[in-house]
Design goal:
The protein has 3 domains: 4-139, Outer Surface Protein A, domain 3; 152-302, no CATH class; 311-429, no CATH class. The strands form 7 sheets. It has a 4-stranded mixed beta sheet, covered by helices on one side. It has a 4-stranded antiparallel beta sheet with strand order 14-17-18-19, with helices on one face. The protein has 430 residues and is of the alpha+beta class. The chain starts with a strand and ends in a 5-residue tail after the last strand. Helix 3 packs across helix 4 (84-100) and helix 9 (230-239) crosses helix 10 (284-302). The chain has 14 helices and 21 strands.
Length: 430
C-alpha cells in the first residue's frame, strides 16, 4: 500500500491549540464508506480501511457538518469525567486523524475562517511520514462482542384480530453470563425455541413428530438436523454415515429443519437455525447436500474470529463458465431472479460463501467434504453501476468484530484485497 504523508504530532498539537479549531465542523467526505460492525465504526476511503474504537465510533457518528468540535466536546464532557480541555483534545485528535486519511473534511463557523485554512496549511507541510497501516492500527481498539447465555427463555403473546385471525408474537430473552456468540450457537439455535403455534413454529412443524439426525462437525461440536420424514433422514445419514454421531441422546443445536410443505404436497423445504428458508431442493439428495453446507456455514459462524478464520459473506456463490459470481442472499429469495439466473446458465448455491486468507471463496460441506473453491476475480450482481463502492463490500460482511487489534487489521486487509478483485455485474450484463 502506498505511503501517505502525515503531519508530525507536534504540529498537530500546535493546530489543536488554536482557539478557532473549536468552531470547526467536521463532516464526512464524499465517497467515504462507513459501516457499524459490532459497535465499531469501520471507515473505508479509496486508500485505507480502518476500524475506530468504540468510544471514537460514538463520537464520529456525530460528524455531520453541523456540530462543532466545541459542541461535541461539551457533550463528551457532560457524559464522562473528562474536563473540557481533555474533551476538546479527544474530539480534536479524532477529527484530525480522520482528516489525515481523507475521511473527513472541514466546514467552519464564526468567529473566523482561519482554523480551516491553518489545518489545510499544516497538512501541506508534513515533517513525518506514516504509513496507512500504522495510522489504521493506531485508531483500532478492542470492541466487545454481544454477551449471550445458552440458557434462554421464549415467551409469546397472542392478539386476536377483528377478522378472526390471531397474531402470535414470540420473544426470546438471553441472560447475560455467556462468553460470546459462539457459545450460544454451539448449544442451541433461535429457531428451535420458537413457540409451536407461532408463525415460525408452524412453518418449521415444531409441534409435529420428527426425526433428529446429529453429526459431529470438523470443529468437534455436534449439530443436529430436524426432519419430518424417514426418507430425508436416511438421505442425510447416507451422505456421510461415519460422521453421523451414534452416541445415545447425542444432540446439538438444530441448525437445519427439513420439512414437507404445510399442505402436505410438493417439494421439501429447508430452513436454517434462524428459521429462514434456504435453497429450493427438489429431492431428498439435494436436501442432504444443502443441509451439509448449512452445517459448514453454522460452524464458521460459531467459530471464534481469528486472523486465519474464514469470513462469512451475506452472499451466495454462483458458478458459471464465465467465472465466479456473487449474489446477495436476498436476491435469491426472489422467484423471478432465480428463474433468470438459471436461464442464464448459473449453478446456484444457497449458503453464505466463505472468504479465506488466500482470498479464495469457498462453499463448505461438512458431511461429504466436497468443498466448492473459486479464485478471483469475482463479480457481484448489483442493480446499478459498474464500480464496487466500499460500502457495497462492507455490507457483505456481518460478523467481523474482534477484540484483538492485530486480528482486526489483518481481517480488514483481507477484505481490502478481496475488494480489489471484485467488480460489479449489472443485471443487463448477465
Amino acid at each position: 500500500m502506498a505511503k501517505r504523508k502525515h503531519r508530525d504530532r507536534e504540529d498537530v498539537v500546535c493546530v489543536r491549540l488554536k482557539p478557532d479549531l473549536r468552531f470547526v465542523r467536521p463532516d464526512w467526505a464524499i465517497g467515504v464508506a462507513r459501516q457499524l460492525v459490532d459497535s465499531q465504526l469501520v471507515v473505508w476511503t479509496d486508500s485505507v480501511c480502518v476500524a475506530l474504537s468504540e468510544p471514537s465510533s460514538a463520537i464520529a457518528r456525530f460528524f455531520d457538518g453541523l456540530t462543532t468540535i466545541e459542541e461535541l466536546a461539551e457533550d463528551l464532557s457532560a457524559v464522562t469525567d473528562l474536563d473540557m480541555d481533555d474533551a476538546r483534545q479527544v474530539v480534536g485528535d479524532l477529527a484530525l486523524e480522520l482528516f489525515d486519511i481523507g475521511a473527513v473534511h472541514w466546514t467552519h463557523s464564526s468567529p473566523s475562517t482561519d482554523a480551516a485554512h491553518e489545518i489545510r496549511h499544516a497538512s501541506e507541510e508534513p515533517t513525518h511520514t506514516k504509513s496507512d497501516a500504522e495510522l489504521a492500527t493506531s485508531m483500532i481498539s478492542a470492541p466487545t462482542l454481544p454477551k449471550h447465555d445458552a440458557a434462554a427463555m421464549a415467551s409469546e403473546t397472542v392478539e386476536h384480530l377483528p377478522d378472526g385471525r390471531r397474531r402470535v408474537t414470540a420473544s426470546i430473552t438471553f441472560e447475560s453470563n455467556a462468553n460470546d456468540l459462539g457459545t450460544l450457537l454451539t448449544q442451541l439455535s433461535p429457531a428451535e425455541m420458537a413457540p409451536v403455534n407461532s408463525c415460525v413454529g408452524t412453518r418449521l412443524r415444531l409441534g409435529d413428530p420428527a426425526y433428529f439426525v446429529s453429526a459431529r462437525c470438523s470443529d468437534g461440536h455436534i449439530r443436529s438436523i430436524r426432519v419430518d420424514t424417514s426418507e430425508l433422514a436416511d438421505s442425510i445419514w447416507a451422505l456421510a454415515p461415519e460422521q453421523v454421531d451414534g452416541e445415545t441422546n447425542a444432540s446439538g443445536p438444530v441448525v437445519a429443519f427439513a420439512t414437507k410443505p404445510l399442505s402436505g404436497f410438493g417439494r421439501p423445504r429447508v430452513y436454517d437455525s434462524f428459521g429462514q428458508r434456504r435453497g429450493r431442493p427438489t429431492n431428498s439428495d439435494e436436501v442432504a447436500r444443502l443441509v451439509s453446507q448449512l452445517l459448514s456455514e453454522h460452524a464458521a459462524l460459531a467459530r471464534r474470529l481469528e486472523s486465519s478464520a474464514p469470513l462469512l459473506l451475506d452472499a451466495a456463490l454462483l458458478i458459471s463458465p464465465q467465472g465466479p459470481v456473487l449474489a446477495p442472499l436476498a436476491l435469491l429469495e426472489d422467484r423471478a431472479w432465480r428463474h433468470h439466473l438459471l436461464q442464464c446458465g448459473f449453478d446456484l448455491t444457497w449458503t453464505r460463501a466463505q472468504l479465506y486468507c488466500d482470498t479464495t471463496l469457498r462453499v463448505g460441506s461438512e458431511l461429504d467434504g466436497n468443498q466448492i473453491v473459486r479464485s478471483g476475480p469475482f463479480r457481484l450482481i448489483h442493480p446499478t453501476g459498474h464500480r464496487v463502492a466500499a460500502s457495497d463490500v462492507l455490507k457483505l460482511f456481518k460478523h467481523i468484530g474482534t477484540s484483538d487489534e492485530q486480528t482486526m487489521q489483518q481481517i480488514l486487509a483481507r477484505i481490502a484485497a478481496f475488494h480489489s478483485q471484485l467488480t460489479l455485474l449489472p443485471p443487463g450484463d448477465l
